[in-house]
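Ticket 4471: requesting a sanity check on a complex prediction with DQA. Repro inputs:
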Amino acid sequence: MLIVVLHGPNLNLLGSRQPDLYGTTTLIGLNTELKHLANELGIQLRTEQHNSEGALIDAVHAAASADAILINPAAYTHTSIALRDALLAIDKPTWSVHLTEPKNREVFRHTDLIEDLCIGRTAGLGVASYTQALRKLVIWLQMRAKKPHL
Ligand code: DQA
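Returned structure tokens:
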């Protein structure tokens, strides 16, 4: 089972970017934690981070060969119809994740252009948003393998 983790813009700065909001774990630290969890769960993980919208969309296209996508589109969550269209085009189970809860922040972050396409969403738990989301996504995929009608 291969899951692709896609991190959107500015997440390369995790650890130093507004640590009061996003925490002090770096992107490398976060990806390392996710790789350990993937080993524990017996799955393969590919992690990527892209600042530009086009590169993130190319990464979504490339994830068409994976089993599922875990994505934090960061600010593109609130703005990118192109990202939404890319996810619709490849039609893979997708779980969205946020370190903070955007719906509790500024009004412009309340719009989520991919939420309805996702099989799940985890937000507001910091790094644990990712680990919880990965665990749930794997359970979802395992359940679907046993009960394809779900
Ligand atoms: C974020 C929330 C977004 O609103 C913001 O633009 C980000 C990070 C989060 O993980 O909490 O860059 O996706």
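Notes from triage: The CA atoms of residues 119 and 140 lie 9 Å apart. Leaving this open until the requester confirms.
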